[in-house]
Hints:
Blueprint: E1 4-12, E2 25-33, E3 44-52, E4 82-92, E5 102-108, E6 112-115, E7 121-123, H1 140-153, E8 160-163, H2 171-181, E9 184-189, H3 192-201, E10 206-209, H4 217-224, E11 229-234, H5 239-244, E12 248-256, H6 275-279, E13 283-286, H7 296-308, E14 316-320, H8 324-330, E15 339-343
Bound molecules: NADP nicotinamide-adenine-dinucleotide phosphate (NAP).
Amino acid sequence: xxxxxxxxxxxxxxxxxxxxxxxxxxxxxxxxxxxxxxxxxxxxxxxxxxxxxxxxxxxxxxxxxxxxxxxxxxxxxxxxxxxxxxxxxxxxxxxxxxxxxxxxxxxxxxxxxxxxxxxxxxxxxxxxxxxxxxxxxxxxxxxxxxxxxxxxxxxxxxxxxxxxxxxxxxxxxxxxxxxxxxxxxxxxxxxxxxxxxxxxxxxxxxxxxxxxxxxxxxxxxxxxxxxxxxxxxxxxxxxxxxxxxxxxxxxxxxxxxxxxxxxxxxxxxxxxxxxxxxxxxxxxxxxxxxxxxxxxxxxxxxxxxxxxxxxxxxxxxxxxxxxxxxxxxxxxxxxxxxxxxxxxxxx
Length: 347
Ligand SMILES: NC(=O)c1ccc[n+]([C@@H]2O[C@H](COP(=O)([O-])OP(=O)(O)OC[C@H]3O[C@@H](n4cnc5c(N)ncnc54)[C@H](OP(=O)(O)O)[C@@H]3O)[C@@H](O)[C@H]2O)c1
């Protein structure tokens, strides 16, 4: 008989209504076989090490009322959270993976995961960097920063760049990529601690706490961009994007990576300044990182030397699996400082 283990897991208890709450999740146990069953030709069993907390997961938790159902078919209640993570292969019948391999890609929020088929699982080749980075810097967050900045915005030296939610998993990298390109970079974030990190640790030219500037976000932007913004890397949307539009320079580019302020609203913010897309001849592009996976090898070739030689830093906020409901809910209120990672087991 196959050896089995008791595996802690995080389940969706309630469909979310508004921003996710800790009480929407339940920590429970399941039993996982450590052997891939006979006949499951591509099956792998994973021991999970780190999990990635990502904002898009809320779409999958909104239940049948979700307006994103066409793009993101949701999960049934009681199912384990599915996401990206870093894992060790415990058993494999898939010829691409062997026992002991370290991988990143799809998994479940559990200590052990059995995947009969894998849509996305990548063997980790570079192990001289922290493995947790494959949830963020070397994972979807990093590729998003690379694609959304270089591919979508085509930045040039000397251009001015604004980044919202700048201390998050993606924003902190966009800022550093922009500095490496020779741009002037300012970010917004939700606390003094985050603003200090952006300026003093990550090399941003400026940063401000948008919560202190709520009355007139446009005035804050004007202080940092007296001559206008060439590139807006948008993570927040809503009122933030609306305040940015009149400040955009002629032929500016807006990379719509995310609109996190809108994800859990039943009535989304109205926008007053969309006319500036025309007046300033702006290019505004929404995009999805999964459409750019072919650029992953190019991205790694670009970013790895910068990380190894300490020109790019990465701020992570790591919590244990028991605290994952709190940590996940926290990304919608800015509790996380840097990439929110869940640690399941030691490397
Ligand atoms: N297009 C794609 O393929 C793609 C890929 C990856 C990520 N994304 C999107 O990119 C954005 C950034 O992702 P991330 O992984 O970097 O984020 P993250 O690390 O999870 O951080 C999210 C941050 O957003 C800020 N935030 C949350 N709710 C907010 C609100 N209502 N108003 C203003 N700020 C708010 C908070 O920081 P503060 O303390 O600063 O408020 C929070 O820490 C998200 O919108 C995400 O969905 C898109």
